[in-house]
From TrEMBL:
The keyword Nucleus does not apply. The lineage of its organism: Bacteria, Pseudomonadati, Pseudomonadota, Alphaproteobacteria, Hyphomicrobiales. Gene3D superfamilies: Periplasmic binding protein-like II. It is found in: Periplasm. GO terms for cellular component: periplasmic space. Its main location: periplasm. The keyword Signal applies. It holds the Pfam family Phosphonate-bd. This is Phosphonate transport system substrate-binding protein.
């Protein structure tokens, strides 16, 4: 009798307590290894937990493809990624948009030597133009689109070559290439690396679409609303936490934007078409 009462009481207490909530796992596509992820996003992890009341767990991924597979299998719930990666993810897994992470002065440029032979876009016809990491929004796709916006067709009116930016700067100084496609921040770093060389810009693209936080398509509505509301109501605190990371300084001065639509990334889709990619079902390597 006593055992029966004790058992019934235990069942009653168990049913009255909330079920143990699984942690919400957060990944970043351009950052490998848990140590780097913790260093850059550890403070943000704590701030997001406080703002949402959720248990947030940092989840390292080795590549963009791994991030998609992790979302599909339910291993990861939230993924921060770039605009070029997002449009591929959208085709592969239909993730839900949470919030955009604005990067001020995020635009592509075509840089040349200020005292060199290239004075206009027309002068680049038949010449070599270097781009950075292949498939990068601001180092490859964006600069190629900036040239296309000025009617220079990719791989037809000029020869595209893929070279890292510092090596490309050295090649530009030697005269091996005519121009470099890169973003505003990277051009500043090139100028710092080569202080005795004058560079100028002959083409500038429009501001690029923002980095974006997405959620797996079957995430619970409760978690999605809590996370989205946290960015809307506690954006300043979350941004302050983000900026404790050295690599995250690219977001300094930016905002979290909650009014985001998939169509905002159609400009990125046009960039892929510019370099000859019509089907967005795989990442460019």
């Amino acid at each position: 009798m006593i055992r029966t009462i004790a058992t019934a009481l235990a069942i009653t207490l168990a049913s009255a307590l909330p079920a143990f909530a699984e942690p919400v796992k957060f990944a970043v596509t351009d950052m490998e290894g848990l140590e780097a992820l913790q260093q850059e996003f550890g403070a943000f992890q704590t701030a997001l937990e406080e703002a949402t009341g959720l248990d947030i767990e940092l989840f390292p991924v080795s590549s963009r493809t791994t991030a998609v597979e992790a979302m599909k299998s339910g291993q990861v719930d939230l993924v921060l990624t770039g605009p070029a990666e997002y449009v591929i993810m959208k085709e592969l897994d239909e993730p839900k948009i949470v919030v955009a992470w604005q990067r001020p002065d995020y635009f592509a440029q075509i840089a040349v030597l200020a005292n060199g032979p290239i004075r206009s876009i027309e002068d680049l016809k038949g010449k070599k133009v270097a781009f950075g990491s292949i498939g990068s929004t601001s180092q490859h796709l964006g600069p190629a689109q900036a040239l296309a916006d000025f009617n220079l067709k990719y791989a037809t009116d000029y020869e595209p070559v893929i070279i890292s930016r510092n090596i490309a700067a050295e090649a530009l100084i030697r005269g091996d290439i005519a121009a470099i496609g890169l973003n505003f921040g990277y051009l500043n770093s090139v100028r710092e690396a080569f202080p005795d060389v004058a560079f100028s810009v002959v083409a500038r693209g429009r501001d690029l679409p923002n980095d974006i936080l997405v959620a797996r398509k079957d995430i619970s509505d409760d978690v999605l609303v809590k996370v989205r509301d946290a960015f809307a109501k506690n954006g300043n605190e979350l941004m302050k936490a983000i900026l404790t990371g050295e690599d995250n300084q690219k977001f300094k001065g930016g905002f979290f934007l909650t009014d985001v639509k998939d169509s905002d990334y159609d400009y990125v889709r046009s960039m892929y078409r510019t370099i000859g990619i019509e089907t967005l079902t795989d990442f460019v390597n």
